[in-house]
Every structure is written in C-alpha cells, then in structure tokens.
Amino acid sequence: MSRFIISSHSPNEEGNVVRVTPESAGWEYVGFEVYALTKGQTLRKETIDQEACLVLLKGKANIHTRHERWENIGLRMDVFEKIPPYSVYVPSNDVYEVQALTDLELAVCLAPGKGTYPARLIPPSEVGVEMRGAGNIERRIHNILPESKPADSLLVVEVFTPEGNWSSYPPHKHDQHNLPHESYLEETYYHQINPDHGFMVQRVYTDDRSIDETMVVKNGDVVLVPKGYHPVSAPPGYEGYYLNVMAGPVRTWKFRNDPDHEWVMESKLAAKQK
C-alpha cells in the first residue's frame, strides 16, 4: 500500500476509525480524525493548542463547548444525499462534547489555533455550494470553512465527483510559500464511495517526479498530500466524495495548475459556453 494512504479500521472504544496527526504524517499543520459513534455515545475532547472543525458527515448530535451549546443538529443521513452538512468551529484552549442522537459519523479537522475566534455553529445555509469545472471535470463543491470565513489556520471543503468524472482537475498544487502566486498548504483527502465496494483513483506527483504515485483508494481511506499535484478520478458506476482539510503558515488557497494540463479547463469551459 502507498505510504500516502491511511485506511480506516473498526471503531475503537471511543469510536475512532481513522486518525492523522502532524507527527504521523511527517508534516507540521494538518490533523484529521473520523469517529463512528453509536446512538447515545459521547465523545469529549480538549482542543489544547489546535482549532477544530467538527463536520457531521451523517447523523444527528448535541454538541457543546465551554461556552456554547447546540441541540439536535444534523440533517443528512448519508453524505451522498449531497445536502450541505452541519459543522461546528471550536477554537484552541476550548473543549467539545458530542452526544450522538443517532448513529453518527463525525469528522474532526484540526490545525494550529490561536484562540482568535469564538466557537460557532456553521449551518447548511452558510455553506457555499458551487459547481466547478465542466463536462467530465465538473464536480459539486461545499465550502464549509473557506478563507472568507473566520479561522486561524483551517480550510475545509467537501467535493462530490460524478461517476466517470475527474476532480481536483486540472491537476494543481499548493506546496510553495510564494505569495501571491502560490501558498504552502498540507492537505488530507477523506474518501467515501457510492456504492461503497467501489474505488477511486488518486495520483500525487511533483514536477521533478520525486513523488509519482497512482493510488487505488477504497471507501474510508485518507490520502495524504504533503506536496505535489493530486487529481482524483471516479470510475464508471461509482460516485466519489471527499472531505479536504488544508492548513499552512498563511491561511490562503493559492494554487498552481500543472502547465501540461491547464489547457483542459479552458477547453471544457469553452465547449460548455457553446
């Protein structure tokens, strides 16, 4: 298996099914966890020096922090309903407690925090929805925590790729601290597949090909993108979902397309406008 794939496992005693830390990934900023909680189960964590974005992938929950409480949040029972999720932003030096009101799949997105912003609910109505690309590189985007919304480090977005389509395409990268042209951002991809016995294909490669891996990704896999371009393909018969977490020294998403393939987007958009 590729060193960039972290596979999910059966829930442990606290419900965790996958975990990425900066230490385990060999980088500095991004952490990511998923919990599969049964109805009535409770998860309690301190954020310490990290901020967190709790994304309710599916199911309903009560969530409270040190100063805030939200009851009976959650709307979708499956990510492929394509309804924007409920999420909760939690600053560093805080605590969160999640009580599952139904079986619950919860993503915990983590990055360094400074305690600048208070805890808040991010309801579906505040999630920006857009269609990006055209033709067989068109995909649906849910901007959960974009750079236009307050946070210290985190950027969080989910993407739906129709069967037979590509996303994160044209291949792009954000691994150089070269503003305003490109920002350095580490990134995780948490994949789900419908039907769940299918697979996605993801490539991670650099200009000099010091990294050049093409991976078969299963349902529940996390792909690490420390640097390089990272396109995704959904084979016929299977639609893909992924939740992206990004963070780096500056909270901005400035990317560079692979110049060999940048023309594809222009070609697809031109065909769409005809």
Features of this protein?
274 residues; mainly beta; six-stranded antiparallel beta sheet; 2 helices; globular
Could you characterize what this model shows?
By secondary structure, the protein is mainly β. It has helices at 22-25, 263-273, and strands at residues 5-6, 16-20, 31-37, 42-46, 50-58, 61-65, 69-73, 87-90, 95-100, 104-112, 120-122, 128-132, 139-145, 155-161, 166-167, 172-173, 175-178, 182-184, 186-194, 200-205, 212-217, 222-225, 232-233, 239-247, 256-257. It has a seven-stranded antiparallel sheet with strand order 1-22-19-24-14-13-12, with no helix packed on it. A hairpin with a 6-residue loop joins strand 12 and strand 13. The relative contact order is 0.19. This is 5-deoxy-glucuronate isomerase. It comes from Geobacillus thermodenitrificans (strain NG80-2).
Q: What is the arithmetic mean of pLDDT?
A: 97
Report the oligomer: single chain
Distance, first to last CA: 44 Å
Number of helices: 2
Shape: globular
CATH C-level label = Mainly Beta
The CATH architecture name reads Sandwich
Total discrete domains: 1
Relevant CATH superfamily: Jelly Rolls
Reported for the largest beta sheet, the result is:
7 strands, antiparallel
Strand percentage, roughly? over 45%
Indicate the structural class.
Answer: mainly beta
